[in-house]
Write the structure tokens for this entry.
Amino acid sequence: ETGVTQTPRHLVMGMTNKKSLKCEQHLGHNAMYWYKQSAKKPLELMFVYSLEERVENNSVPSRFSPECPNSSHLFLHLHTLQPEDSALYLCASSQGTRDYNEQFFGPGTRLTVL
Amino acid sequence: GESVGLHLPTLSVQEGDNSIINCAYSNSASDYFIWYKQESGKGPQFIIDIRSNMDKRQGQRVTVLLNKTVKHLSLQIAATQPGDSAVYFCAEPLIFGAGTRLFVKA
């Protein structure tokens, strides 16, 4: 148990659906992250939030929309996704984005887009 | 651009032997590195980190070596156990390598 939870753990959706992924951290951290993990590819950083403000957006398509209502919760809203968006989506948190901070990862949401 | 990569996609070792997993990075200004372990069905988990002002750091059964001259770091696992079977990533710290899958043979 890392202190970072993600729901749902598995999600299957059609290309016209709208769904949301949820992440919650119980560690009192100030920074939260979304990563995409595809087969045989490195983890890809999608978004970084620090103190509820987005500080990094790595050229992610607009069909992915993050939301950080407070420092403990992070959402990823999905709409009109493509089959190539199928992947494991990992949420992480850390004490801060600067200095030397390890990240604590949730178990991920396995997303399949049909 | 920046990249963090691993030399081998898979590594198979006998239980009890030492394992060495390698990683190369391209950004000479990088000053902090982390090794993560990812088991099946779980997110990456922190193993050990190292700052650029060090060339070696030891943890419990793990050692990380950093060679800034050739921009290379390695993770050494002593007396590898079946529970060590996983994918290992180096990270810099938000840029991840592709990962090395470690298989431990009993």
